[in-house]
Amino acid sequence: MPKVIGIYGSPRNGGNTDLLLDSALEGTQEHDDDVNKVYVRDLKIAGCRGCDGCAKTGTCIVQDDMQDIYNLMDDADVIILSSPIFFYGLTSQIKALIDRGQAMWWRKRLGKDKKGNDRGRGYLIAVGATRGKNLFEGGELTARYFFDALDMSYEGDLFFRGIESMGAVKEHPDALQQAYDLVKKQLF
Predict the structure, then answer these.
(1) DSSP secondary structure code for residue 38 in this structure
(2) 186 forms bridges with which residues in the sheet?
(3) DSSP secondary structure string for all residues of 90-151
(4) CA–CA gap between residue 166 and residue 47 (Å, rounded)
(5) Could you count the other beta carbons within 10 Å of the beta carbon of residue 47?
(6) Adjacent-strand bridge partners of 38
(7) Which of 17, 30, 55 is nearest to 176 (CA)?
(8) CA 155 to CA 47: how far, in whole Å?
(9) Which residue from 2, 6, 115, 160 puts its CA 20 to 30 A from 73's CA?
(10) CATH superfamily of 3-187
(11) DSSP 3-state assignment of 79?
């Protein structure tokens, strides 16, 4: 039974990326997966200090809610990030969590990773209000390198353009179905 983490990166409760991630997690729960939901907006996560404290031990010296997230990510087989796109990038809330992944990257380099190579799979769900050609490139690259730091493979993404108002994704049942199927089809 895979351990799945859904990381909600929107600062807004019940927004479009929340709804899409809820749907993706429902698809995994059908098979009794162990699912954890992380609402970054409700956590106190400081930005990375760039102090290299983790370079010696693989453990971040900053004591905040991120310590609990490290434990969840250590055990995860699947991580699904969700974020609206703000100025062609992921939200500052989820970006703080991603930047703090530096400690896990050091842990990997120091050979202190519990799982070793090929730890699992990573996915990204993002929604943007505009229709810009490069709207998702920044967020995708950030997610890819985050999963690489965790020694996870980037397995896929769902990107939705032109969806802005809160809950507007409900008018796109095909989007909710795609999210439901995102991980389910690859795991089972």
Answers:
(1) E
(2) none
(3) --HHHHHHHHTTHHHHHHHHTT--SS-S--EEEEEEEEESS--TTTTHHHHHHHHHHHHHTT
(4) 27
(5) 12
(6) 7
(7) 17
(8) 26
(9) 160
(10) Flavodoxin domain (3.40.50.360)
(11) strand
Measured from the Cβ of residue 126, the count of other Cβ atoms closer than 10 Å reads: 27
Domain boundaries, the chain: 3-187
- Six-digit token string for 75: 């055990």
DSSP structure class, residue 53: T
Angle, helix 66-75 to helix 102-109, in steps of 10 degrees: 50
What is the residue type of 34? D
Return the bridge partners of 89, or none: 86
pTM above 0.85, yes or no: yes
Helices (H) and strands (E) in the chain, counts: 7, 5
pLDDT 10s digits, 44-103 = 999 999 999 999 999 999 999 999 999 999 999 999 999 999 999 999 999 999 999 999
Query: 3-class DSSP state for residue 125?
Result: strand
Residues written for the chain: 188
Please tell me the predicted confidence (pLDDT) of residue 143.
98
Tokens standing for 63?
Answer: 């004591």
